[in-house]
Structures are given as C-alpha cells and as structure tokens.
Amino acid sequence: MDLDTLILELLDDVSIADQGELLVRLASQGQDLTQSTLSRRLKRLGVQKVHGRYRRVESLTQSLPEVTLVDVPPNLLVLRTAPGFAQALGLSLDADPPPGQMGTLAGDDTVFVAVLPERLAEVKAHLARVLAAR
Question: 40-56: per-residue pLDDT in tens?
C-alpha cells in the first residue's frame, strides 16, 4: 500500500486530532516521516482539520456545480446544488463561517444554513460573494 493511501485510510478509520498522532500511527506501519513532510502530503491530498479532526475535504472551487441561494426569513438560507454535492458544500461553509452563521445541515442536493435572524442579509450577501468568486 502506498503512503498516500495509508494516510487516507488511517484518517477514515480513526479520529486523528493532530499530526503528531498521525506520525506515530504511520511509524507503527513502517512509514517514518518528518512533520514537515507529512504536512506537505496532507496539503497535497486535500486533508484539513475540520471540527478538531483531520479529514479529506474537496475544494469548493474544484468540486461544485452551480449553486442557487434563497433566504427563508427569519433565520434560514437554503442552497441547492447538483445531486451528491451538498455534503462538500456544507463542509466548505462550516470550515470558515461568517459571523452569524450558526451551522449547516446538508442532504444530497440541499444545504440548510441556520443564521442569527439579525444577520440573515449579511450572511446571504457573504455566501453570494463566495459562490460568485468560485
């Protein structure tokens, strides 16, 4: 098994919170790396720390088709995308939430974004800018 596959399998199988822990697990599999080498590999593989755990995250700009954005007052935004893409979109939104975004719930082609009611217009404008820039 190559090193990249081993890294991804370890991240899928075990909740790993820091690179030191991942280095120890890789060493137990006969793979001795420096922290800087591991860090570069993680970046190349698209692995990021999300909610305190390392995971492979697809880039918003690389993986998502057209997205529509609708506000549902008083505190909900609904994003619609192609089937199978809502989870990646939700992860991308959670990775760097604007002030007022409280959380997301993603299905297959729809993401609900919970927002503080007083911040609905502000968060909608922010998400519209992010989606337009991709």
Answer: 999 888 898 888 899 98
CA 125 to chain centre: 20
DSSP string, 99-115: TTEEEEEE-SSEEEEEE
In whole angstroms, how far apart are CA 120 and each of 4, 61, 62, 78?
A: 41, 24, 27, 12
> Which domain covers residue 49, as residue numbers?
3-56
In sequence order, the β-bridge partners of residue 50 are 53
**Does one domain contain both 123 and 69?**
yes
Which DSSP symbol is given to 98? P
For the entire predicted model, the pTM comes to 0.54
Statement to judge: residues 14 and 51 lie in one domain: yes
Q: What percent of the chain has pLDDT over 70?
A: 94
